[in-house]
Amino acid sequence: MNTNFKQQAGCRFIIAFSLSLLGCGKHSFDEQYDDTLDSSSSNVASSSSGEGSSGSIDAGDQLMLNRINALVDNEYYNRSPRDGRNMNPTGIAVAVYKNGSFYYFNRGYHESEQRTTENRTPITENSISQIASLSKTFTGSLLGYLSQTINPSTGLPYVNLDDPVSKYFDIKPYDDGAIPTLAQLASHSSGFPLSAPNGTTPLTSLQNSLNNVVYEFKPGSGVLYSNFGISVLGNILAKAYYGDDFPTKYFEDLLQELICIPLGLESTSTIPLLFPERTTEAHDFCGAPLTRENLALLSRSAFGINSTSHDMIRWLAMMMGEYVPADMVEFQKGAVKAFEPQAWRNDAKTSAYGLNWRIEINRKVPNGTISPYENNVDSLGSVFKELFPVLSNRGQPYGPVYSHSGANRGQWAFCIISPETKSAVIVMTNHNNGGTERLAYGIMDRALITR
Fold it and tell me: How far apart are the first and last CA of the chain?
Protein backbone atom coordinates (compact mmCIF):
# COMPACT_ATOMS: atom_id res chain seq x y z
CA MET A 1 0.00 0.00 0.00
CA ASN A 2 1.54 3.31 -1.07
CA THR A 3 -0.36 5.61 1.25
CA ASN A 4 1.32 7.53 4.03
CA PHE A 5 -1.01 8.30 6.90
CA LYS A 6 0.12 11.15 9.08
CA GLN A 7 -0.94 13.03 12.16
CA GLN A 8 -0.21 16.68 11.53
CA ALA A 9 1.81 18.83 13.92
CA GLY A 10 -0.42 21.00 16.05
CA CYS A 11 -3.48 18.71 15.69
CA ARG A 12 -5.11 16.82 18.51
CA PHE A 13 -7.45 13.87 18.13
CA ILE A 14 -10.79 12.52 19.22
CA ILE A 15 -10.18 9.55 21.55
CA ALA A 16 -12.96 7.33 22.89
CA PHE A 17 -13.56 7.60 26.67
CA SER A 18 -11.82 10.99 26.86
CA LEU A 19 -12.50 14.62 26.07
CA SER A 20 -13.19 15.45 22.43
CA LEU A 21 -10.12 17.25 21.08
CA LEU A 22 -9.02 18.81 17.81
CA GLY A 23 -8.29 16.23 15.15
CA CYS A 24 -7.11 15.87 11.60
CA GLY A 25 -5.44 13.24 9.49
CA LYS A 26 -3.78 13.44 6.10
CA HIS A 27 -3.42 11.02 3.23
CA SER A 28 -0.68 12.04 0.80
CA PHE A 29 -0.41 10.05 -2.40
CA ASP A 30 2.33 9.64 -4.94
CA GLU A 31 0.87 6.49 -6.47
CA GLN A 32 -2.57 7.78 -5.52
CA TYR A 33 -4.70 5.02 -6.92
CA ASP A 34 -3.33 2.41 -4.51
CA ASP A 35 -5.06 4.36 -1.72
CA THR A 36 -7.70 1.75 -0.90
CA LEU A 37 -9.68 1.18 2.28
CA ASP A 38 -7.43 -0.52 4.80
CA SER A 39 -7.57 -1.17 8.53
CA SER A 40 -4.45 0.91 9.02
CA SER A 41 -6.35 4.05 8.03
CA SER A 42 -9.74 3.27 9.48
CA ASN A 43 -9.53 5.45 12.57
CA VAL A 44 -7.96 8.88 12.67
CA ALA A 45 -7.83 8.84 16.45
CA SER A 46 -5.73 5.68 16.74
CA SER A 47 -3.44 6.05 13.72
CA SER A 48 0.21 6.09 14.61
CA SER A 49 3.20 7.68 12.93
CA GLY A 50 3.77 11.44 13.16
CA GLU A 51 6.59 13.87 12.85
CA GLY A 52 8.91 11.46 11.08
CA SER A 53 6.43 10.59 8.34
CA SER A 54 6.98 11.68 4.77
CA GLY A 55 4.87 14.46 3.29
CA SER A 56 5.74 17.26 5.72
CA ILE A 57 3.51 20.31 5.65
CA ASP A 58 4.50 23.93 5.20
CA ALA A 59 3.29 26.93 7.19
CA GLY A 60 0.48 27.61 4.71
CA ASP A 61 -0.83 24.06 5.01
CA GLN A 62 -0.62 24.22 8.81
CA LEU A 63 -2.59 27.46 8.88
CA MET A 64 -5.19 25.85 6.61
CA LEU A 65 -5.50 22.85 8.95
CA ASN A 66 -5.73 25.04 12.04
CA ARG A 67 -8.46 27.10 10.44
CA ILE A 68 -10.45 24.01 9.45
CA ASN A 69 -10.12 22.57 12.96
CA ALA A 70 -11.40 25.83 14.45
CA LEU A 71 -14.38 25.89 12.08
CA VAL A 72 -15.26 22.24 12.74
CA ASP A 73 -14.94 22.70 16.48
CA ASN A 74 -17.11 25.79 16.41
CA GLU A 75 -19.83 23.86 14.58
CA TYR A 76 -19.50 20.82 16.87
CA TYR A 77 -19.20 22.45 20.30
CA ASN A 78 -20.88 25.83 20.08
CA ARG A 79 -24.36 25.50 18.64
CA SER A 80 -26.74 27.82 20.47
CA PRO A 81 -29.15 25.94 22.81
CA ARG A 82 -32.82 25.86 21.85
CA ASP A 83 -35.39 25.96 24.67
CA GLY A 84 -32.66 24.89 27.07
CA ARG A 85 -31.78 21.83 25.00
CA ASN A 86 -28.32 20.92 23.70
CA MET A 87 -28.23 21.39 19.94
CA ASN A 88 -24.64 20.30 19.31
CA PRO A 89 -24.31 17.56 16.65
CA THR A 90 -23.91 13.95 17.72
CA GLY A 91 -21.13 13.42 15.18
CA ILE A 92 -19.47 15.17 12.24
CA ALA A 93 -17.19 13.72 9.55
CA VAL A 94 -15.40 16.26 7.37
CA ALA A 95 -13.04 15.46 4.50
CA VAL A 96 -11.10 17.96 2.43
CA TYR A 97 -9.11 17.69 -0.79
CA LYS A 98 -6.52 20.34 -1.53
CA ASN A 99 -3.66 20.25 -4.03
CA GLY A 100 -3.12 16.49 -4.11
CA SER A 101 -3.89 15.53 -0.50
CA PHE A 102 -6.91 14.32 1.44
CA TYR A 103 -7.49 15.54 5.01
CA TYR A 104 -9.99 14.26 7.61
CA PHE A 105 -11.57 16.03 10.57
CA ASN A 106 -13.83 13.89 12.73
CA ARG A 107 -15.84 14.76 15.83
CA GLY A 108 -18.26 12.84 18.01
CA TYR A 109 -19.81 9.41 17.87
CA HIS A 110 -22.08 7.05 15.97
CA GLU A 111 -24.46 6.91 18.95
CA SER A 112 -26.08 9.57 21.11
CA GLU A 113 -25.17 9.84 24.77
CA GLN A 114 -28.93 9.66 25.35
CA ARG A 115 -28.74 6.02 24.33
CA THR A 116 -25.48 5.04 26.00
CA THR A 117 -22.49 6.68 27.65
CA GLU A 118 -20.28 3.59 27.34
CA ASN A 119 -18.73 1.90 24.34
CA ARG A 120 -19.73 4.67 21.96
CA THR A 121 -18.16 4.36 18.51
CA PRO A 122 -16.06 7.37 17.43
CA ILE A 123 -16.86 8.93 14.07
CA THR A 124 -14.12 8.29 11.49
CA GLU A 125 -13.76 8.84 7.75
CA ASN A 126 -15.01 5.26 7.33
CA SER A 127 -18.26 5.82 9.24
CA ILE A 128 -21.24 5.20 6.95
CA SER A 129 -24.25 7.52 6.76
CA GLN A 130 -27.00 8.25 4.28
CA ILE A 131 -25.86 11.06 1.98
CA ALA A 132 -29.49 11.81 1.09
CA SER A 133 -29.77 14.10 -1.96
CA LEU A 134 -26.03 14.08 -2.59
CA SER A 135 -27.04 10.84 -4.30
CA LYS A 136 -28.25 13.04 -7.13
CA THR A 137 -24.66 14.04 -8.01
CA PHE A 138 -23.99 10.42 -8.90
CA THR A 139 -27.18 10.17 -10.96
CA GLY A 140 -26.53 13.39 -12.88
CA SER A 141 -22.91 12.45 -13.55
CA LEU A 142 -24.03 9.04 -14.81
CA LEU A 143 -26.39 10.84 -17.19
CA GLY A 144 -23.52 13.02 -18.40
CA TYR A 145 -21.33 9.99 -19.00
CA LEU A 146 -23.97 7.85 -20.74
CA SER A 147 -24.91 10.77 -23.01
CA GLN A 148 -21.30 10.87 -24.21
CA THR A 149 -20.74 7.09 -24.45
CA ILE A 150 -21.54 4.86 -27.42
CA ASN A 151 -23.66 1.78 -26.87
CA PRO A 152 -21.84 -0.94 -28.85
CA SER A 153 -25.16 -2.62 -29.64
CA THR A 154 -26.56 0.40 -31.46
CA GLY A 155 -23.58 2.56 -32.39
CA LEU A 156 -25.37 5.50 -30.73
CA PRO A 157 -25.07 7.09 -27.27
CA TYR A 158 -26.86 5.19 -24.53
CA VAL A 159 -29.01 8.27 -23.94
CA ASN A 160 -29.37 11.82 -25.24
CA LEU A 161 -30.04 14.79 -22.99
CA ASP A 162 -33.00 15.79 -25.14
CA ASP A 163 -34.57 12.32 -25.10
CA PRO A 164 -38.19 12.55 -23.90
CA VAL A 165 -39.19 10.40 -20.94
CA SER A 166 -41.68 8.70 -23.27
CA LYS A 167 -38.77 7.01 -25.06
CA TYR A 168 -38.33 4.82 -21.98
CA PHE A 169 -41.66 4.83 -20.07
CA ASP A 170 -45.24 5.67 -20.87
CA ILE A 171 -46.09 9.07 -19.42
CA LYS A 172 -48.99 11.47 -19.22
CA PRO A 173 -47.98 14.59 -21.20
CA TYR A 174 -48.45 18.18 -20.17
CA ASP A 175 -51.67 19.90 -21.29
CA ASP A 176 -50.19 20.99 -24.65
CA GLY A 177 -48.56 17.61 -25.25
CA ALA A 178 -45.08 18.58 -23.97
CA ILE A 179 -43.08 15.77 -22.38
CA PRO A 180 -40.04 16.42 -20.15
CA THR A 181 -36.58 15.49 -21.37
CA LEU A 182 -33.77 13.79 -19.45
CA ALA A 183 -31.93 17.10 -19.11
CA GLN A 184 -35.07 18.66 -17.64
CA LEU A 185 -35.40 15.81 -15.15
CA ALA A 186 -31.79 16.34 -14.06
CA SER A 187 -32.09 20.14 -13.78
CA HIS A 188 -35.42 20.22 -11.91
CA SER A 189 -37.13 21.92 -14.83
CA SER A 190 -39.41 19.02 -15.80
CA GLY A 191 -42.52 20.41 -14.15
CA PHE A 192 -42.72 17.31 -11.93
CA PRO A 193 -43.77 17.75 -8.29
CA LEU A 194 -41.39 17.22 -5.38
CA SER A 195 -42.66 13.70 -4.67
CA ALA A 196 -44.34 10.97 -6.67
CA PRO A 197 -48.15 10.93 -6.36
CA ASN A 198 -48.29 7.18 -5.85
CA GLY A 199 -44.88 6.21 -4.48
CA THR A 200 -41.99 4.77 -6.43
CA THR A 201 -41.88 1.07 -5.62
CA PRO A 202 -42.44 -1.41 -7.13
CA LEU A 203 -41.94 -0.60 -10.80
CA THR A 204 -45.69 -0.79 -11.44
CA SER A 205 -46.18 2.08 -8.98
CA LEU A 206 -43.54 4.15 -10.76
CA GLN A 207 -45.39 3.61 -14.03
CA ASN A 208 -48.67 4.45 -12.32
CA SER A 209 -47.15 7.70 -11.05
CA LEU A 210 -46.02 8.65 -14.55
CA ASN A 211 -49.47 7.88 -15.91
CA ASN A 212 -51.07 10.19 -13.34
CA VAL A 213 -48.44 12.89 -12.83
CA VAL A 214 -49.78 16.37 -12.07
CA TYR A 215 -47.44 18.94 -13.58
CA GLU A 216 -46.53 22.10 -11.66
CA PHE A 217 -45.70 23.94 -14.90
CA LYS A 218 -44.91 23.26 -18.55
CA PRO A 219 -41.64 21.30 -18.92
CA GLY A 220 -38.74 23.67 -19.44
CA SER A 221 -40.60 26.81 -18.33
CA GLY A 222 -39.57 26.90 -14.65
CA VAL A 223 -37.55 25.29 -11.89
CA LEU A 224 -38.91 23.21 -9.01
CA TYR A 225 -36.85 20.71 -7.03
CA SER A 226 -38.18 17.22 -7.71
CA ASN A 227 -37.14 13.99 -6.03
CA PHE A 228 -39.66 12.25 -8.23
CA GLY A 229 -37.92 13.45 -11.39
CA ILE A 230 -34.56 12.05 -10.27
CA SER A 231 -36.18 8.76 -9.24
CA VAL A 232 -37.53 8.46 -12.78
CA LEU A 233 -34.16 9.43 -14.24
CA GLY A 234 -32.25 6.77 -12.29
CA ASN A 235 -34.54 4.08 -13.63
CA ILE A 236 -34.27 5.42 -17.18
CA LEU A 237 -30.47 5.27 -17.01
CA ALA A 238 -30.53 1.69 -15.74
CA LYS A 239 -33.02 0.70 -18.44
CA ALA A 240 -30.97 2.39 -21.17
CA TYR A 241 -27.74 0.72 -20.05
CA TYR A 242 -28.99 -2.77 -19.20
CA GLY A 243 -31.76 -3.12 -21.80
CA ASP A 244 -33.73 -6.31 -21.33
CA ASP A 245 -31.90 -7.03 -18.06
CA PHE A 246 -33.74 -4.11 -16.43
CA PRO A 247 -35.22 -4.17 -13.78
CA THR A 248 -33.38 -7.32 -12.72
CA LYS A 249 -30.38 -5.03 -12.94
CA TYR A 250 -31.18 -1.57 -11.68
CA PHE A 251 -29.59 1.65 -10.41
CA GLU A 252 -27.44 -0.05 -7.75
CA ASP A 253 -25.81 -2.23 -10.41
CA LEU A 254 -25.14 0.84 -12.56
CA LEU A 255 -23.63 2.72 -9.61
CA GLN A 256 -21.31 -0.13 -8.72
CA GLU A 257 -20.24 -1.04 -12.26
CA LEU A 258 -19.53 2.42 -13.58
CA ILE A 259 -18.40 4.30 -10.45
CA CYS A 260 -17.84 2.49 -7.17
CA ILE A 261 -15.79 -0.50 -8.31
CA PRO A 262 -13.42 1.33 -10.70
CA LEU A 263 -13.02 4.27 -8.28
CA GLY A 264 -12.55 2.05 -5.22
CA LEU A 265 -15.57 3.35 -3.29
CA GLU A 266 -15.90 0.21 -1.19
CA SER A 267 -18.37 1.66 1.33
CA THR A 268 -20.76 3.36 -1.12
CA SER A 269 -24.05 1.67 -1.99
CA THR A 270 -27.81 2.08 -2.06
CA ILE A 271 -28.09 -1.11 0.01
CA PRO A 272 -28.84 -0.11 3.62
CA LEU A 273 -26.80 -1.53 6.50
CA LEU A 274 -24.33 -3.22 4.17
CA PHE A 275 -21.69 -2.74 6.88
CA PRO A 276 -23.74 -2.41 10.09
CA GLU A 277 -20.71 -2.16 12.36
CA ARG A 278 -19.63 1.05 10.58
CA THR A 279 -23.10 2.55 10.09
CA THR A 280 -24.02 5.58 12.20
CA GLU A 281 -27.30 6.06 13.99
CA ALA A 282 -29.58 8.95 13.03
CA HIS A 283 -30.54 11.65 15.57
CA ASP A 284 -32.95 14.54 15.93
CA PHE A 285 -32.04 18.17 16.72
CA CYS A 286 -31.45 17.34 20.39
CA GLY A 287 -29.54 14.10 19.88
CA ALA A 288 -32.39 11.65 20.45
CA PRO A 289 -32.06 8.50 18.29
CA LEU A 290 -34.27 8.27 15.20
CA THR A 291 -35.26 5.31 13.07
CA ARG A 292 -33.33 5.40 9.79
CA GLU A 293 -35.51 6.06 6.78
CA ASN A 294 -36.50 2.94 4.85
CA LEU A 295 -36.11 4.29 1.34
CA ALA A 296 -38.09 2.93 -1.58
CA LEU A 297 -35.91 0.84 -3.89
CA LEU A 298 -36.70 2.75 -7.06
CA SER A 299 -36.19 6.20 -5.50
CA ARG A 300 -32.65 5.61 -4.29
CA SER A 301 -31.12 7.39 -7.27
CA ALA A 302 -32.63 10.56 -5.76
CA PHE A 303 -31.72 10.26 -2.08
CA GLY A 304 -30.81 6.67 -1.20
CA ILE A 305 -27.01 6.27 -1.34
CA ASN A 306 -25.00 5.45 1.77
CA SER A 307 -21.34 6.46 1.90
CA THR A 308 -18.39 7.70 3.96
CA SER A 309 -16.36 10.89 3.92
CA HIS A 310 -13.42 8.73 2.74
CA ASP A 311 -15.35 7.67 -0.36
CA MET A 312 -17.10 10.96 -0.98
CA ILE A 313 -13.95 13.08 -1.07
CA ARG A 314 -12.54 10.72 -3.71
CA TRP A 315 -15.74 11.04 -5.70
CA LEU A 316 -15.44 14.82 -5.60
CA ALA A 317 -11.74 14.81 -6.47
CA MET A 318 -12.44 12.52 -9.43
CA MET A 319 -15.16 14.83 -10.73
CA MET A 320 -12.63 17.68 -10.66
CA GLY A 321 -10.18 15.58 -12.68
CA GLU A 322 -7.77 15.47 -9.74
CA TYR A 323 -8.02 11.82 -8.71
CA VAL A 324 -8.71 9.72 -11.78
CA PRO A 325 -7.73 6.03 -11.89
CA ALA A 326 -7.04 4.62 -15.33
CA ASP A 327 -10.41 2.84 -15.33
CA MET A 328 -12.20 6.14 -14.67
CA VAL A 329 -10.60 8.35 -17.33
CA GLU A 330 -13.38 7.95 -19.88
CA PHE A 331 -16.07 8.22 -17.24
CA GLN A 332 -14.64 11.50 -15.92
CA LYS A 333 -14.44 12.98 -19.42
CA GLY A 334 -18.13 12.28 -20.01
CA ALA A 335 -19.36 12.95 -16.47
CA VAL A 336 -18.22 16.60 -16.48
CA LYS A 337 -21.09 17.21 -18.90
CA ALA A 338 -23.02 17.42 -15.64
CA PHE A 339 -21.30 20.75 -14.88
CA GLU A 340 -22.86 22.54 -17.85
CA PRO A 341 -25.79 24.82 -16.91
CA GLN A 342 -29.17 23.44 -17.97
CA ALA A 343 -31.64 25.66 -16.09
CA TRP A 344 -31.06 29.04 -14.44
CA ARG A 345 -32.03 29.39 -10.78
CA ASN A 346 -32.22 33.21 -10.84
CA ASP A 347 -32.79 36.03 -13.31
CA ALA A 348 -29.23 37.31 -12.92
CA LYS A 349 -27.94 33.98 -14.25
CA THR A 350 -25.37 33.65 -11.47
CA SER A 351 -26.76 30.32 -10.26
CA ALA A 352 -27.91 27.31 -12.26
CA TYR A 353 -28.66 23.62 -12.17
CA GLY A 354 -26.45 21.39 -14.24
CA LEU A 355 -27.21 17.68 -14.39
CA ASN A 356 -28.09 17.34 -10.69
CA TRP A 357 -25.29 19.71 -9.61
CA ARG A 358 -25.97 23.16 -8.25
CA ILE A 359 -23.68 25.66 -10.01
CA GLU A 360 -22.49 29.03 -8.72
CA ILE A 361 -21.06 30.61 -11.85
CA ASN A 362 -18.36 32.73 -10.22
CA ARG A 363 -18.21 32.53 -6.44
CA LYS A 364 -16.59 35.38 -4.53
CA VAL A 365 -14.69 35.39 -1.25
CA PRO A 366 -17.27 36.64 1.29
CA ASN A 367 -17.08 40.16 2.67
CA GLY A 368 -17.23 39.07 6.33
CA THR A 369 -14.34 40.34 8.43
CA ILE A 370 -13.49 37.36 10.62
CA SER A 371 -15.47 34.21 9.94
CA PRO A 372 -18.85 32.92 8.79
CA TYR A 373 -19.70 32.55 12.52
CA GLU A 374 -19.77 36.23 13.51
CA ASN A 375 -22.21 35.63 16.37
CA ASN A 376 -20.06 32.90 17.93
CA VAL A 377 -16.61 34.52 17.83
CA ASP A 378 -16.49 35.06 21.59
CA SER A 379 -17.25 31.38 22.29
CA LEU A 380 -13.76 30.42 21.14
CA GLY A 381 -12.01 33.52 22.45
CA SER A 382 -9.10 34.93 20.50
CA VAL A 383 -8.62 31.89 18.27
CA PHE A 384 -10.83 33.33 15.53
CA LYS A 385 -9.11 36.68 15.58
CA GLU A 386 -5.76 34.94 15.27
CA LEU A 387 -6.77 32.50 12.54
CA PHE A 388 -9.21 34.63 10.56
CA PRO A 389 -7.87 38.19 10.18
CA VAL A 390 -9.54 40.76 7.97
CA LEU A 391 -9.41 39.26 4.50
CA SER A 392 -7.28 41.04 1.94
CA ASN A 393 -9.02 39.27 -0.92
CA ARG A 394 -12.63 39.58 0.22
CA GLY A 395 -15.06 40.08 -2.62
CA GLN A 396 -12.69 38.61 -5.18
CA PRO A 397 -14.08 35.86 -7.46
CA TYR A 398 -12.47 32.45 -7.55
CA GLY A 399 -14.36 30.74 -10.34
CA PRO A 400 -17.29 28.34 -10.58
CA VAL A 401 -18.20 26.02 -7.72
CA TYR A 402 -20.43 22.95 -7.86
CA SER A 403 -22.33 21.72 -4.84
CA HIS A 404 -25.27 19.79 -3.44
CA SER A 405 -27.04 19.45 -0.12
CA GLY A 406 -28.74 16.42 1.38
CA ALA A 407 -31.05 15.82 4.34
CA ASN A 408 -32.73 12.56 5.27
CA ARG A 409 -34.23 11.95 8.69
CA GLY A 410 -31.39 12.48 11.17
CA GLN A 411 -28.58 12.41 8.59
CA TRP A 412 -27.42 15.52 6.70
CA ALA A 413 -24.62 16.17 4.21
CA PHE A 414 -23.20 18.86 1.94
CA CYS A 415 -20.48 18.79 -0.72
CA ILE A 416 -18.75 21.53 -2.70
CA ILE A 417 -15.94 21.52 -5.26
CA SER A 418 -13.88 24.31 -6.82
CA PRO A 419 -12.01 22.88 -9.82
CA GLU A 420 -10.05 26.07 -10.52
CA THR A 421 -8.54 26.05 -7.02
CA LYS A 422 -8.31 22.24 -6.79
CA SER A 423 -10.40 22.24 -3.62
CA ALA A 424 -13.23 20.03 -2.37
CA VAL A 425 -15.14 19.61 0.90
CA ILE A 426 -17.61 17.02 2.16
CA VAL A 427 -19.41 17.43 5.49
CA MET A 428 -21.55 14.61 6.90
CA THR A 429 -23.44 14.50 10.18
CA ASN A 430 -25.73 11.99 11.87
CA HIS A 431 -27.89 14.76 13.30
CA ASN A 432 -30.77 17.00 12.19
CA ASN A 433 -28.72 20.15 12.74
CA GLY A 434 -28.64 21.89 9.36
CA GLY A 435 -25.07 23.14 9.76
CA THR A 436 -23.46 21.13 6.97
CA GLU A 437 -23.75 23.79 4.26
CA ARG A 438 -22.54 26.58 6.53
CA LEU A 439 -19.53 24.54 7.62
CA ALA A 440 -18.62 23.39 4.10
CA TYR A 441 -18.71 26.91 2.69
CA GLY A 442 -16.85 28.20 5.72
CA ILE A 443 -14.04 25.73 5.08
CA MET A 444 -13.94 26.46 1.36
CA ASP A 445 -14.02 30.25 1.68
CA ARG A 446 -11.99 30.73 4.87
CA ALA A 447 -9.44 27.94 4.81
CA LEU A 448 -8.95 26.56 1.29
CA ILE A 449 -9.31 29.71 -0.81
CA THR A 450 -7.91 32.21 1.70
CA ARG A 451 -4.47 30.82 2.52
Answer: 31
Q: Name residue 258's amino acid.
A: L
Distance CA 165, CA 41 (A): 44
Please tell me the class of the 125-380+400-445 domain: alpha beta
* DSSP per-residue codes, 375-440: GGGGGGTTHHHHHS---TTTT-B---EEEEEEEETTEEEEEEEEGGGTEEEEEEESSS---HHHHH
Residue 367 confidence (pLDDT): 67
How many C-beta neighbours within 10 Å does residue 343 have? 17
Tell me the per-residue pLDDT of 181-226, one tens digit each, with 9 for 90 and over: 999 999 999 999 998 876 545 566 888 899 999 999 999 999 999 9
3-state secondary structure of 160: coil
Q: Which of 211, 159, 178 is nearest to 355 (CA)?
A: 159
Would you kindly state where each structural domain of the chain is located, as residue ranges? 125-380+400-445
Contact 290, 282 (CB under 8 A): yes
Whole-structure pTM value: 0.86
The mean of the pLDDT values for the chain is: 82
Q: In this predicted structure, what is the pLDDT of residue 42?
A: 30
